Structure formats: C-alpha cells, structure tokens
Amino acid sequence: MLTRKVIAGATKRAHLPSHKTSQRGQEHEHQRAHDPSRCPYWHYRRHVRRTSPAETPPRGPFTIEGWKTAWNSPSPERVMARIPLITTPDVTGYWPRTTRPVRGPKEYAQRIVDLLAFIPDFRAELVEHATNGDIMFLRWVATGTGPDGRSEAVGVDRLIVPNGYVAENLILSDHPIFAVIARHVGDVRAE
Questions:
Q1: 132-159: pLDDT as tens digits
Q2: Domains along the sequence of the chain with CATH
Q3: Do residues 109 and 125 make contact, with C-beta atoms less than 8 angstroms apart?
Q4: Cβ neighbour number for residue 190 with a 10 Å cutoff
Q5: Cβ distance 160 to 166 under 8 Å?
Q6: Taking Cα atoms as reference points, which of 70, 143, 173, 152 lies closest to residue 113?
Q7: Measured distance CA(83)–CA(165) in Å, rounded
Q8: Helix residue spans in 3-131 (DSSP H)
C-alpha cells in the first residue's frame, strides 16, 4: 500500500504493508481462520468486510426519521413488525443495568416490548445525533409512568449500522428506572 507521511514538514512517500499481508507476504492469522464472533467489530470491519464502492449494497431501512417516528408512539405490534426489518440477523443489544446482551431480532424486539409493557406510555424524543460512517450516536430524553410515578430519563444509543441495518445497540443511561426494568425482565446487574 502506498501512503504519504509527513516528516518535519516534508511529505515523503512510504511503502507500507497492506492490511491483507504481513511484510513477508503471509496472510494474517485472522484471514486464515476468521471467526467474527471472537473478533472486535472494528477489527472485523477494517480487515475482513472491506468492499469496493461498487460492491456495497444499498443502505437499509434504518433512518433517524424512522427512529423518531417509532419512539414518538411505540406499540408492541409495531415493534415486533419493525425490528426484523431494520436489524441484522445477529443484532446485539446492550441494555443499562443488565448482565447479558439480547441477541437476534426476536430477543431484541422482546426487550423493547417488555419495556413498553412495564411503561405503557413510554416515549423518547431525539435531542441530537451524530454519524461517523457506520456508527451513530443518538441522545434522547424519554418520559413515561413507571411504578414510582412519572419520570424523565436522559440517555444515548450508540448504534452500529452497517449498510443501513442495526447490528449493535449500546444503550447508555444511569436513570434508576433501568434498574427497575432489569429486575422486571429478570436480568439485573449487581451494583
């Protein structure tokens, strides 16, 4: 691979080994026997999933506008119908205060349905968002009536959305309602 590096203000050409081979021309170990489930996403994306722009499939159905609409008035029926359309088959969701992630569209959707069963008037409003390649950050404010009355929670979703389909969602919020929800679904992390 040919690259340029700047040394003391001067630009020089440098030949660097490509990501596909070592300096001796041997394949990296992860290319001979790659197991994506044991490889960090950034590593998998950088080294294995590279495609040329012509090979890249069109973006999928996940959009910021779709997120806003879905959380403006969520219902269990719409969640169960929508989640399989906007996620990858191996989607993983990490919820606050839980010990294990939810995996797959069915389990991912069920966790949202459990949230809606516990807080039927749950709503989330998008405050701001940022996108960097396949990574999206969504800062939201959620409201709803839980067992202790009406509350407002602030949080962030960090989504990995390759080709427009949600592959991972890390939900971050320190609001106590998420501990109550974790107990409700039987998966609470010890504090």
A1: 999 999 999 999 998 889 999 999 999 9
A2: 2-50 (no CATH), 64-184 (3.10.450.50)
A3: no
A4: 5
A5: yes
A6: 70
A7: 10
A8: 29-32, 41-47, 64-72, 76-86, 104-118
Q: Say if residues 86 and 65 touch (Cβ distance below 8 Å).
A: no
Place of tokens 């995996």: 103
- pTM value is 0.67
Distance CA(171)–CA(140), nearest Å, equals 10
Q: Which residue has the tokens 């993983």?
A: 92
User: Mind listing the pLDDT tens digit for each residue in 98-130?
Assistant: 999 999 999 999 999 999 998 999 999 999 999
List phi, psi (to 5°) of 69.
Answer: -65, -45
Q: Which residue has the tokens 């996108």?
A: 131
Kindly list the distances between the CA atom of residue 159 and the CA atoms of 13, 75, 97, 102, 136, in Å, as whole numbers in the listed order: 37, 21, 18, 14, 5
